[in-house]
Structure formats: structure tokens, C-alpha cells
């Protein structure tokens, strides 16, 4: 999958890590904290630039910038800033670990992170997870999930997706027929076939398979999955399908869900805005407005407040 690259954060030209480190030290030193300086610097630098600031900060002051930020900031504002300061794979690994630790597992987070990433992104997450937690991600995930949902996620994290094969119309037609035979054409559903095809084929090949499926069956693969599959597996397969077709729209619907109902799901709001800001957050903003007739910025402003709001709005970039 290659999402439409439309970042809202691209870093700054003429970047100087030592100068930024000095400005951040000044913002945190002494009485009170200059939150606006922290927002202005960290929301406009790329993650690579933030890592350079972190190194310069330690080199100049012998201090860990993340620890200093944690001691000066609080609440969801702190969560945004700390998320920005982590390398992307480490941040997502910490989110994965958090969703599996303790009582119950948040399957939505597993789906959001694992079903929407490219094979190289998954490989980096798997590698980072083992370094951070000294246990394989697949093993931890298998202990927290069950059935066909577990089998699908295991295929994804073990790197089953073939992104080198190129697209092949004949194979796409054959795969579409297999999906049809495994679902609509029979009594009961063979989830294993859905898992195998949706976890193995490249996103470009899946796009072709889904077109062939519609020609063959007269309805979309999403309609078939919603009718034939249940539970977490339905959510996971639907996420793959929707990200093949329009990943920005899928993330827009996740953001919308995070802001609906009583109180925002701040963790999801922060995770999507931070983790997509250097990838396709611009495209997500466009899709949000197309789908809901409201700007993402206006919705975020309505659901958040203070420095937390200012930090998220800054990451969203110009309206």
C-alpha cells in the first residue's frame, strides 16, 4: 500500500538541532513553562529532526529531553508531545503493548496499527517490539487474541504479504473466484481463504482482486465481508479492504468515531494525528471534510482545549 503522500509536517529548512535544544531548555528552565515555544518547535519539526534535537539536548545539557518534558507537562498535552518525541516505530510498539497489557485487549488498536501498514513498516514494528519488550510481538498477540482474527494478524506480523510480485490480472480473477466460493457461494464461510488472500496479496494486487470480485458477484467485497464474517475478524478484514481502496478515508472514520459520543477517545485521536502527520494527514483532512461536511480542525477544536488543542491543531497544518 502506498498511501497518498500528503503530510502536514515536513520539518523545517535550515534546521539547527543545537539552537532548538537551547530554546526548549529555556522553555522548561526556571519558574513556569513556555508551552507555546514547545508547541511551535516540536509540531513543526520532522521526527528525524526531533531525534536530532533529543541527541543535542543530551549532549549540551547531560539531560534526557523526554524526562524533562514529562516533568514539566501534564495531561493529554504531555501525551502529544511525548508521542512526537519517540521514533515512529517505538511509539506504535508502545501503543500495541498498552492495548494488550492488563485486563482485556483493545482489538481496535491492533487492527488500526497492524492492518493498515506496509510490509516494511510492519517489519520495523516487529523488530522494535522485540527490542523494547524482549518478547516477539506475534507471541504476545497470540496470547491475547483467538481464532481466525489471531490467524490473520499472525500472517500480517510474520510478513506474509508479497509486495514484490507485481500485479497479475489472471491471478486476481482466480483469487476473486476463491473469495466468492468461500463466502457468498456456499452455506457458511471459509474464513481461512479470506485470511490467506487478504494477508498475502499486495495492496495493488488486492485492488485488482476487489474489482474482479465486483464483476463476478455484483456486490463489493466490503458488502460480502459484512454479510459473511463477524466479530473482530470482520473489522480487521474491512480495515484492509478500506485501506486498499482509500486509507485516508478509513483513518477519517476512525477519527470521527474517536470524537463521537460522551468524551473523546483521546488516545486514538493523538495516535492517528501524530502517526499520520508525516504520511497522509493532509489527505485525511480532505476525506474528513468530504465525508462529514465539517473540517477536521473544527471538530478537534470542539473536542479538546488548552495546550492540548493548540498542539493537535498545529499538527493538522494550515486549514
From TrEMBL:
It comes from the Eukaryota. This is Annexin. It comes from Euphydryas editha. The keyword Repeat applies. Pfam families: Annexin. Keywords: Annexin, Calcium, Calcium/phospholipid-binding, Repeat. Belongs to the annexin family. The keyword Plastid does not apply. One of its GO terms (molecular function) is calcium-dependent phospholipid binding. PROSITE patterns: ANNEXIN_1, ANNEXIN_2. Transmembrane segments: none annotated. A pair of annexin repeats may form one binding site for calcium and phospholipid. GO terms for cellular component: cytoplasm; nucleus; plasma membrane; vesicle membrane.
